[in-house]
Predict the 3D structure of the following.
Amino acid sequence: LRADPLPGIASAKGAAGAVLQVRDVTDLRRLESMRRDFVSNVSHELKTPIAAISALAETLLDGPLEGPPIARRFLKDIENHADRLHDLVVDVIRLARVESGRDVFDVRRVPVGPAVEEALRGLRAAAVKAGVQLSSVPPPEAAHVRADADALITILDNLLTNALRHTPAGGRATVEWFPDQVDDRPVIRLRVIDTGEGIPPEHLNRVFQRFHRVDPARSREKGGTGLGLAIVKQMVAVFDGAVAVESEPGRGATFTVTLPAA
Ligand code: ADP
């Protein structure tokens, strides 16, 4: 939005108002079209597992299946699809809550170390299963950010889950953090570094968009909802922070979250 009149029409009375209105409508249209895309993406993502669950249940009910092992496999597939539905609904609700505004968060002085430890604890079993070494590199002095403690853990959990998903066995995922400054304001930079497959350059600035995936089939297969980074981006913005990514394909990715220091 621009409140000042455009150069050249500065003398025309009411020009500023007109400019404001036109841009307003453009923004509204864009917002509306984003909302429509989101609803249609969510519907599409929901339809696939629901259709699969129906088909599997129908086949089971139609029986007779050749023995319990096959029935068990069908039930396992139903469970996997149901888990996917659950994760998607949780992420859609989480994104909607973040977008609804600041008041859903308890913003206070949060020590970074314990939040990192908690996020790592929750992922230990997954890391062992993936054969990826998880570790943290704390700075010499304790660091604090202004954020919501649970949201900080969610941010770290989303980034670390991605690191585990995209790093082959034998690789590493590391969290490090350190104080820095942005325009004279003290900040804490938190880095999640992995040694995995990395992200092709043409995808780098799109991975934060909802449902954007480098390899959609693989992301779904690995349990991704396609919303993890969109949630991270929105949450970080609520705390007046930012998130960025760098990657060298084949050598890994580094996500850097910058939050105001407290
Ligand atoms: P998803 O649920 O698919 O992981 P995200 O929003 O978390 O959704 O991430 C979007 C896409 O970004 C992923 O599908 C993947 O292609 C890419 N990506 C995210 N993190 C990494 C990473 N650490 N290494 C490689 N690719 C990644």
Summary: The helical segments are 15-62, 68-99, 112-130, 149-165, 216-221, 228-238. Strands lie at 108-111, 133-137, 144-147, 172-182, 185-194, 242-248, 252-260.
